[in-house]
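I'll show a typical protein example:
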Amino acid sequence: MEYAEPDYMLEASATTANDPDFPKLYGLHNTGQTGGGNDADIDAPEAWDTTTGDPSTTVAVIDSGVDISHPDLTNNIWVNPGESGTDSGGRNKATNGVDDDGNKYVDDVNGWDFVKNDATVFDSGDNLHGTHVAGTIAAEGNNSAGMVGVNWKAKIMPLKFLDANGGGATSNAIKALDYAVASGAKISNNSYGGGGYLQSFVDSLKRADAAGHLFLAAAGNGGADGIGDDNDASPSYPASYDVPNVVSVAATDKNDALAGFSNYGATSVDIAAPGVGILSTVPGNTYGSLSGTSMATPHVAGVAALVKSSNPTLDDAGIKANLLQSVDKKSNLSDKTASGGRLNAVRALPDTSAPDTTISSGPSGTVATTSAAFAFSSSEPGSTFECRLDAAAFGTCSSPDQHTGLADGAHVFEVRAIDAGGNADPTPARGTWTVDATAPMAEAPAQSFVANSRLGTSAVPIRLGWSATDGVDGGGVGRYELQQSTNGGAYANVSLPTSTATDITRSLAPNSTYRFRVRAEDKAGNLGGWAEGPVFKVAPHQENATTVGYAGGTWTRAALSGAYGGYVKHDKTPGAKAKLFFTGRNVAWVAPKSAVRGQAEVWVDGVKETTVDLYSSTTLARRVVFSKSWASSGSHTVEVRVLGTAGRPRVDVDAFVVLS
């Protein structure tokens, strides 16, 4: 014999007080409906958003009998697979009087009665305690009847060791625990207490711990005075057994205050849960309210079953850690329980929801800087982050995340939050932008005459055109600046019709020299250098200039109103020629147009360029009727040949204008 010790009598930890108001389950969801404090509850509805339980999770109710015919419990009662179905003789295993599964208990299809030592887990007249406890743990949910347990679907394994008066032998409690462990239950609710320390109970608890079984125990309801005691000073067993798989539970009321009857202990009591005026199932297909740490403990058992349902691989240590680390901290419980708080179902559940990641600042659009810094945050405090740039591998980062030396072109920054449960945001936050750190290169302004334009009497319209290349990124030019220098003077700004205009017509004075320069700024703000055009002079050669020669026909100089200088030379003879020898990069022939004027060929450097028709239904003076430009200045000839058009043979030379 290893040891001998007394067989203490144990009793239910319940203070009965009927409350017919259904379904005011403030312990699950408290909105003040019973006069209590808002959210003084375990946040069950929030937890149910994640899981309402799983029928593969079994909770042993080591207590008085459980009325397994109660409509809110009957579908959630454990069925022993070894004692269900038919045997080889076709008999119902549940009633064949045979120990079909070889566990030394005959016909234990739903559990066992350790008081009468039979398979009937509820007898008429049994104490209502076990049925009440079972309902808080796992009354069937969403069935439009009665009330709902913390866990809607978990299976209840009724293990009766308390008699009709609520008392039972410790030895039978130990047998019940051993049965639960052997039958595969990973959680048991133990809402009872009394007697002293027993090594046999410790040994049973250790066996349960080795099997990954969590033992939830009521902390106790004080002594005869009904006032809760300090379990640190006066242990209450089995809640006070110092074995890792034991969770000792105190009771709180609808205002999160420690119940006056509840035992407590800064080191020996682990957690608190609602235990005052708790509505639940009672035998006879009805409902009633009870108070006690016995009513608080099944709240914890139901949440433990939710945790196990969400993560079946968790052992008793893992479930216990989730329960105690996720409590709602309460100042009034800080020195009354080891966790310092009241049970919270949703926080106890394994975190399976991923956080949302938000980028609060960072570059966008096109920017000139080759560095970037992104600030970001997570919807779940305490998250860590992983970042990547331009589809590289994700790596650990923190906000703000900075990058330097970025090349011109498009870039993509991505960041994802990872919460404490290891859930990563499946849709990382993205920031896209373009780096344009290369200034655009402008092309020097090119000048040309404006076709069919009218020369002023003291000015010549000249078109200036330019462009720019904005590097490899292609962000585009945002604006141009054009400046003009006259007769070697300082540059002065020239107003443009729009910020991105690429040409403009300027009226320039004859016999003055000009130089234009242009620069471009791209959309990212990079300002390029000046591109200078050549110095040029606007040089008019009037009809009687020595540089203009005439041959063939009879070229006649005549006054003409509106002509440049007031005179023109004209001829009607086919083949008559007017020729200019010049050095420059642009040349224009200026002549009047009217209904009596005909056609002429234009030859440049001995090659025919075009035929010009000087006809116009209205008289037009000083018109640029032909122009030509070269990339660089050079010596050229331009020749006008009269064609003698029938009915209107006249061709005039008002002037030639050269940009030299």
User: Anything to note?
Assistant: Residues 13-22 have pLDDT under 50 and may be disordered. Helices lie at 44-48, 129-138, 170-182, 199-210, 293-310, 316-325, 345-348.
